[in-house]
Amino acid sequence: MGAARRLPFSFAALYIERVSDEIEDLKRQVAELTARVYRLEQGQEQAQPTSAAPTEARSIPAPVATPEPATGPRIVRQQGQKTLENRIGSQLFNRIGIIALLIGTAWFLKFAIDNQWIGPLSRVLIGLAAGIGIVAWSERFRSQGYSAFSYSMKALGTGVLYLSLWAAYAVFHLVPTAVALLAMVLVTAANAVLCWMQNSELLAFYAAIGGFITPVLLSNGQNHALSLFSYLLLLDIAAVILIALRPWSRLLLAAFFGTSFYAIGWYVAYYSDQQFPLAAFFAVAFFLLFAVAPQLLRNLRMSTQTKHLAVQDNIVLVVLPFLNAALAFFEFYALFSEPGRTYARPWIALPLAAFYFVMLRVSRLRQLGRGPMALPAVYMAISIIFFTAAIPLELHGRYIAIGWLLEAAVLIWLAREQPQAELRYLASSVLGLAFVGVNIIHLGDSQPVLLNARFATYLVAIAVFAFAAWIATRASQEWRPIAAATGIGVNVLVMIAVCLEIHSYWAAQISIPRSDLYTNEQFTYSAWAMLFGALLLAIGFWKKSAFLRWQALALLTLSIAKVFLVDTRQLSQGYRILSFLGLGVLLLSVSFVYQRDWLGLRGSRS
Question: Averaged over 44-49, what is the pLDDT?
Answer without folding.
Answer: 45
